[in-house]
Specification:
Blueprint lengths: L5 H6 L5 E8 L11 E7 L5 H10 L4 E3 L6 E3 L7 E5 L6 E4 L2 E5 L4 H10 L15 H7 L2 E2 L2 E2 L4 E8 L4 E6 L5 E2 L2 E2 L6 E8 L5 H18 L19 H7 L6 E2 L2 E3 L7 E3 L5 H19 L8 E3 L2
Parallel strand pairs: 2-5, 3-5, 4-18
Antiparallel strand pairs: 1-2, 6-7, 7-14, 8-9, 10-11, 10-14, 12-13, 15-16, 16-17
Flavin-adenine dinucleotide binds next to strand 3, helix 4, strand 8 and strand 14.
């Protein structure tokens, strides 16, 4: 989608927002798949309510992009524009056991920065790519840890009112890869409360988690992490593996031979290839196990 409305184009410089024309989302997502659209890069949180109001008034649909590590984006020209936050300065500010982190900050860097300051708890999140904003939206988690457990406050731009609000952790429900934010709420920053731990102890935990990832995931290949959520009490990866579907493919979209819940772009896969593979695997699991697997990957349809 191209932003054509003169009122929006004229307002962008005053809203500290850069416009990049016809950006390929394939270059901004870890799957390396996706069509083109206009991208707005936003530098000041204070400008966001006005920007979102302006877009809504002119019927410009938009989506929020973090690090693009959990996204499957449609092919071709996209019917929405994409908004992305530029990292604030400082990205992370510490005060005792609390860390205030910009939503655009890299999650891995946040974990290591806190660790070096003897703040632990998030060791399991090391190796989860993407931004802190994306992790909040998804309630990212691994190895028994989820980011929501450490959230004390979230600074968010509420979609309905075009207003920046601070929500307390107790006002938000963080479930398995699901949060109670409204679909169009934009995460701006978070205050985390983290337990004190000596750095060497945290480092030990980080090394163990890194090793577990390296030994089980196709880290050198283009993926979006797990495609499906685990069903209650089960493992999507195990179910797919038991059906002999490792390496099963549709075009260049392929079930990883290392981890059956990771689907990789083994070359020039299109979104259509990946969606066909997802539908096919879901159907086979449904027929064999009577379980309908739910997507963990977020799909941006055309
Ligand atoms: C190799 C690999 C391993 C992975 N391992 C894990 C894992 O162990 N555990 C896990 O939970 N995930 C894992 N993932 C998936 C992914 O890294 C996480 O879901 C991550 O938190 C997504 O963050 P992101 O910034 O890349 O979000 P994106 O992919 O950019 O976006 C994901 C969703 O969040 C929304 N979003 C992003 N930023 C904002 C914002 N500021 N405000 C509002 N909405 C926003 C998007 O609109 C979209 O709906 C893995 C992915 C890969 C490629």
């Amino acid at each position: 989608m191209r932003i054509e409305e003169p009122k929006i184009l004229a307002a962008l410089p005053g809203l500290s927002t850069d416009l990049r024309r016809e950006v390929s989302l394939a270059g901004l997502t870890s799957l390396g798949i996706g069509g083109t659209t206009d991208l707005l890069r936003i530098q000041r949180h204070e400008a966001i309510p006005r920007l979102l109001k302006l877009l809504d008034e002119h019927g410009v649909s938009h989506k929020f992009l973090g690090g693009g590590s959990n996204l499957l984006v449609a092919d071709g020209e996209l019917p929405f524009i994409v908004l992305q936050l530029v990292k604030g300065d400082p990205e992370i500010a510490l005060d005792g056991n609390s860390a205030t982190v910009d939503a655009a900050a890299d999650l891995g860097r946040t974990v290591t920065f806190c660790a070096k300051n003897n703040l632990g708890g998030m060791e399991g999140l090391i190796g989860v790519p993407g931004t802190v904003g994306g992790a909040l939206r998804m309630n990212a988690g691994a190895y028994g840890i989820q980011i929501g457990s450490y959230v004390r406050e979230v600074k968010v731009c509420r979609a309905a009112e075009h207003k920046i609000e601070i929500l307390r952790g107790e006002q938000i429900s963080f479930e398995y890869r699901h949060t109670s934010f409204a679909p169009d709420d934009m995460m701006l920053a978070v205050k985390l409360e983290l337990p004190s731990k000596p750095y060497p102890e945290i480092l030990q935990g980080i090394r163990i988690c890194n090793e577990k990832r390296r030994s089980s995931q196709p880290l050198g290949q283009k993926s979006a992490g797990c495609i499906f959520k685990n069903p209650p009490g089960g493992s999507a990866g195990r179910m797919i593996d038991e059906l002999g579907l490792k390496s099963f493919s549709h075009g260049d979209a392929r079930v990883s031979d290392r981890h059956a819940n990771f689907f990789v772009n083994a070359g020039q896969a299109s979104a259509a290839d990946m969606l066909a593979l997802i539908a096919n695997v879901r159907d086979r699991v449904q027929r064999a196990h009577g379980v309908t697997l739910e997507n963990e990957v977020v799909v941006w349809n055309a």
